[in-house]
Design goal:
390 residues, mainly alpha, two-stranded parallel sheet, 19 helices
Length: 390
Amino acid sequence: MITLSFSQAILLLINCYKNELTAEKLKKLYLKGITSNEDLQYVINLFKRNQFDEKYQISTNARVINEDPIRRYFETHLAFETLLIVLDQIDWEDLSTYYEALYRLLPTIEQAKFKDYLNKTTSDHEDYLVEEYIDTLFKLKSNTSYNDFSEIQKNKLSLIFKCAWLSSFIVKLPNIPLKNVYQVGFFAEQQRGRQIKLLKASAETHGPQFKISCYSNNFGLMKNYMPIPKSDVIFTESGFSFIKSVDRVNFNLAAAWPKEHFSTLVHPFSCSISGTMLSQLRCMKKLEKTALLPFNNLEKFTSFLKCFTSSLLFSNGGHSYNEFLAVLKIPKVVSAFKFIDHFEEIDAINLMFKGNELQFNRALDKTITYTKVILAKQEVHDSLLASEIR
């Protein structure tokens, strides 16, 4: 009997109930996860009603959830499809104004340092974060996976990547709001549950065929060993010059964040609850205090948020959507962003599904096709194992 992750089970049901009201409820559960016993029983009952339990067994094990390539494939494609549309919804003047305001927060010496980094195409492995952003900006200019984006969309993506990078400098400065969020709750290091597996790689760690210029060929949340067709937009022949978070970080299930994260039964772990998201929010709050934040209402803020999370998820998979969006639910963050009406209502459903149905369904259709291939391979594999045992 083939073992499915809970996410895969929901996906089979979505494919079963296409064009029915049931499908919409299942899609929301697939995106956000299981948050009640009622949701859990709903999925299990549908699974049995369709007699899937005769062929498959569902696992709720965290490692099965985390190793599910199908869910990782979906989120990566959802990010790609979303960006193709939402980048046109964010105003260029707002984005460039925001970038300039962030840049001006840096002391002169840090501005010069940042400009120097922007002129590089390689960091010579001097710093992991520097290496990651240099590689990301280089790929944006040169990689065929970005060919579907217009030049203005690429320019917007470039500014978003730079805004994310700038925040890592800015939050080290004094008087940046929300500093007290660090080291508390899910952000306490022992509760984030991150286990660093590998910072560097070599022929000794990856075998004699290892090439230092190519740690992975997979965009987004896909781990380096997960299968992707070479014709797929999330595959890159040129590869990544750094070890992505999904390949260098494992989770400790005894910690608070992994427990919370996996309790919804669908979300993969990349690098724990997002410090990148918190850094960006801290910078935004700093600018809001001085009336310099362009994204100061719900419409503008959510457009930026969709672009920000999707661009970073697609480019290097540093965080899953849940790891990004969970930051918005921290009480001190909610309190700090009361100036945005209905801020507390922002979640995966309102951000990535409602108003984004076309992009969601495109990503889902690609994922269902991918699922059929993965499960067919698993069936053959299990059949061969069974014949060997006999």
